[in-house]
């Protein structure tokens, strides 16, 4: 069967936007309000000679007492468990947060291959130094992308399929 790629990260970092770009369709709902994607959403993706199943998740907010946010985290944990490769997204505009570091720890414990994405890099010149900060997560090279402007997507997919 096809490899499974799960997209995880905190709410509002652009998971659903990236999912829709990779799926080539507007399947997942993109929203300014965190907490819209509560369920896992699936799409089949083709890149070069590779085919895989991609999962969008509602997001992981560590250490929350909020019921919806903890349900979203549960869905993300299920997605991580069933994934062969994980795309972990952070947001360059918000910068590296404690919550990102906690999600990174959780992914390390999963022992799955992780591709680190720093999204919302709409202007590479402007954000270059901010992208390098994400090396501090200790999970490898950050891939600068702008899901909204479809920048950096090809390089990202090349590195994802290389892990199958
Ligand atoms: P999710 O909660 O992680 O699924 O995030 P969404 O995909 O719903 O996006 C949250 C917000 O970030 C929306 O307002 C998007 O339009 C915005 N967004 C997503 N990708 C980008 C990007 O590359 N650049 C900028 N500037 N905004 C983005
Ligand atoms: Mg979403």
Automatic annotation (TrEMBL):
GO molecular function: GTP binding; ribosome binding
Record-listed GTP 1 binding positions: 9-16, 56-60, 119-122
Protein's UniProt keywords contain Transmembrane: no
Transmembrane segments annotated in the record for this chain: none
Keywords from the UniProt entry: GTP-binding, Nucleotide-binding, Repeat, Ribosome biogenesis
Top-level taxon in the UniProt lineage: Bacteria
Keyword Nucleus appears in the UniProt entry: no
GO BP field: ribosome biogenesis
Domain spans labelled EngA-type G: 3-164
First and last residue of the signal peptide: none
Family indicated by similarity: Belongs to the TRAFAC class TrmE-Era-EngA-EngB-Septin-like GTPase superfamily. EngA (Der) GTPase family.
Subunit structure: Associates with the 50S ribosomal subunit.
Purpose of the protein: GTPase that plays an essential role in the late steps of ribosome biogenesis.
Protein name listed in UniProt: GTPase Der
Species this protein is from: Eubacterium oxidoreducens
Entire protein: shown range: 2 to 165 of 440
């Amino acid at each position: 069967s096809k490899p499974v790629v799960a997209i995880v990260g905190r709410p509002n970092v652009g998971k659903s936007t990236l999912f829709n770009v990779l799926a080539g369709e507007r399947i997942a709902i993109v929203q300014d309000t965190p907490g819209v994607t509560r369920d896992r959403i699936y799409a089949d993706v083709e890149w070069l000679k590779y085919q895989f199943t991609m999962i969008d998740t509602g997001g992981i907010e560590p250490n929350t007492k909020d019921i919806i946010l903890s349900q979203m985290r549960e869905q993300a944990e299920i997605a991580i468990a069933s994934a062969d490769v994980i795309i972990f997204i952070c947001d360059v505009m918000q910068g590296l947060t404690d919550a990102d570091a906690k999600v990174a720890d959780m992914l390390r414990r999963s022992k799955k291959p992780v591709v680190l994405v720093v999204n919302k890099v709409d202007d590479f010149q402007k954000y270059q130094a901010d992208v390098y900060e994400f090396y501090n997560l200790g999970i490898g090279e950050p891939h600068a992308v702008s899901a909204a402007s479809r920048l950096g997507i090809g390089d990202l997919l090349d590195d994802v399929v290389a892990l199958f």
